[in-house]
Amino acid sequence: EVHYFELALICLNEKNECFVWPNERFSIPNSNIVLGVMSINILKSIRAIRSLILLENDSQARVLFRSLIEYLDTISAAMCDVYVFKSYIFPSEDYEEQYKNWRKNLAPKKVKNILKKYESGFGLDPDVMNKIHDMRDDTYHWLSQFTHASWPAQVVSAFGASEEVAVSYTHLTLPTNRE
After folding, report:
1. 4-15 and 31-54 are packed helices; what angle lies between their axes, rounded to 10 degrees?
2. Tens digit of pLDDT for each residue in 10-47?
């Protein structure tokens, strides 16, 4: 079964007109295919997050949501900066080379700094932008705890509590039969 967003990728490929970096010439794949693939993965992630939440698997949804943030940041940076775009489609089958490229050009901190550079040109109030960046960092840090072993995140996973409740449970001890 072909889904609507997969059909959009097919249409992008058939037109063969690049609307992302139209003056750049890339080897395979062209920029429309890259944008289409990234968009499909974003849409599928959103659908999976919704499904996980409906199944009451909130912490698993948070792990996937953290990945979604990385996808969105990466696609945004790739649309702003042709070097990021070229780094994203870095053609290597060698895992070590791919990892070095990712660490140097696409790691979350690198992408965040690229986005900050471009966002500074939007003419928005710097205090507002700093608050937005702080909120993003706090959210990303909290969601990262679900990816890595973290007691507060495990409490939230088990009981569906908020971050504040989870932090208060970090000193949780097993009940005893003493009265």
Report:
1. 180
2. 555 555 555 566 666 665 566 777 777 888 888 889 99
